[in-house]
Amino acid sequence: MRNKRWLSFAAVLLLSLLIHNQAFAEPLPDISINIGGSQGDQPGTSALSLLLLITVLSLAPAIMVLMTSFTRIVVVLGFVRTSLGTQMMPPNQVIIGLSLFLTLFIMAPTFGQVNEVALQPYLKGEISQTEAFDKAAVPMKKFMFSHTREKDLLLFMNYTKTEKPESFEDIPLTVLIPAYAISELKTAFQMGFMIFIPFLVIDMIVASTLMAMGMMMLPPIMISLPFKLLLFVLVDGWYLIVKSLLLSFNT
Questions:
Q1: What pTM was estimated for this model as a whole?
Q2: Distance of alpha carbon 35 from alpha carbon 129, whole angstroms
Q3: In this predicted model, what pLDDT tens digit does every residue of 141-194 receive, in sequence order?
Q4: Which residue ranges make up each domain of the chain?
Q5: Residue 80 in contact with residue 195, Cβ under 8 Å?
Q6: Distance (Å) of CA 36 to CA 56, 90, 104, 249
Q7: CA gyration radius for the chain?
Q8: What distance in Å separates the CA atoms of residue 194 and residue 190, rounded to the nearest whole number?
Q9: Residue 210 and residue 223 in contact, taking contact as beta carbons nearer than 8 Å
């Protein structure tokens, strides 16, 4: 009964406050938002430019993952953590952050070309949006084509019945992007396999030694983990991994 009284009192108090605010509140002014200015055709001010900007921002994660070196880097670093057996060390935030900055470092020349031939001329009003998109696609196509296997590219070209292009510039992005993505995954898994081998050897040696000593109940991972960490530190593993990733994009 006491709780019901408190609830009734709170309801009456809330209702009185609403009535009081409604009686003395001033009417809110009308607010309208107009998309686009009076300048007309200036780049970046029209409603179409705003719509294009929102579309690009919404697709930015997919562009970063599938059209840059991000996929290979983050997969390889994930394999390093798995092969070490350190569970969540380094954490996902560190792996993704390192992958992002390595991606920006590797893609800097390509992004510089996009800025020079497409973005800056468009901001100055020298070219249209369509021309800017076509010019920006050329450096990205060149980068993706140089790291895409011919077998993967033919898979999507044959499926879409695309005619044989004269150069990489004639390859549609709808064909080149998925071909590049699966090529990157294959390369990343090959590098991951090579990373696993030395740590797998340590696990096998530790497991065999424990079985020979009759220690069946002792988990081998508890003994092998310090040895794997020691080996990784002695050979300067992070330096070798990052160096291998950088060199893999120079070929």
A1: 0.70
A2: 18
A3: 888 888 888 888 888 888 888 777 777 777 888 888 889 999 999 999 999 889
A4: 62-195+237-248
A5: yes
A6: 18, 46, 33, 42
A7: 29
A8: 7
A9: yes
